[in-house]
Amino acid sequence: MKIVMAHGSGGDMTRRLIEEIFSKAYGNEYLSQLEDSTVLPCETKIAYTTDSFVVTPPVFPGGDIGRLAICGTVNDLAARGAVPKYVSCGFILEEGLDAELLKKAAESMALAAKEAGVLIAAGDTKVVEGKGGLYINTSGIGFVYERDVKAKNIRSGDAVIVSGTVGDHHAAILGARLGMQSVSSDVAPLNGMVEALFEAGLNVHAMRDVTRGGLATVLCELAEASEKHIEIDEEKIPVSAAVKSFAGLMGLEPVYMGNEGKMVIILPAKEAERAVGVLRMCKYAENAAVIGHVYEPEKEEKPELTVKTALGGTRVLDVLAGEGLPRIC
Amino acid sequence: MKIVMAHGSGGDMTRRLIEEIFSKAYGNEYLSQLEDSTVLPCETKIAYTTDSFVVTPPVFPGGDIGRLAICGTVNDLAARGAVPKYVSCGFILEEGLDAELLKKAAESMALAAKEAGVLIAAGDTKVVEGKGGLYINTSGIGFVYERDVKAKNIRSGDAVIVSGTVGDHHAAILGARLGMQSVSSDVAPLNGMVEALFEAGLNVHAMRDVTRGGLATVLCELAEASEKHIEIDEEKIPVSAAVKSFAGLMGLEPVYMGNEGKMVIILPAKEAERAVGVLRMCKYAENAAVIGHVYEPEKEEKPELTVKTALGGTRVLDVLAGEGLPRIC
Question: Rounded to two decimals, what is the model's pTM?
Answer without folding.
Answer: 0.90
